[in-house]
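Below is our example:

___
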Amino acid sequence: MLQQAHDFNDLRLTEELNHEPPIYTYVFTTPLGDVRIAKYMLMRPDGATEADFISGLEKYPENELVVFHEEGHEVSRQKLYLNEWNARTKSGEELEDGRYLFALDLGNGEKALRGYFYILRHTNE
């Protein structure tokens, strides 16, 4: 798989060049291995995601994912995140397509991993 990497201190952003459209992924290097967070959360019409949003959390059982709207208000908080989030608010409302911010606390006493991602939904058209 072709990949292009960009260094940002402890963060690498990789691009899978053989996927249409390209899939960008944050890669955080941690003491127990890489944690990868997708730059795009691609949602199918049935509400499931195209692929795991975050990988590498198996060694971090005390993790917590907090998602914020681009304007800064919290829309979701999940402890022990295992890729079951379906782009809905804490009250169960479907989030609109767009840009969101994340803070992922690995529960290991280090600073939270932070960045942004986009929610994109397939249409039936």
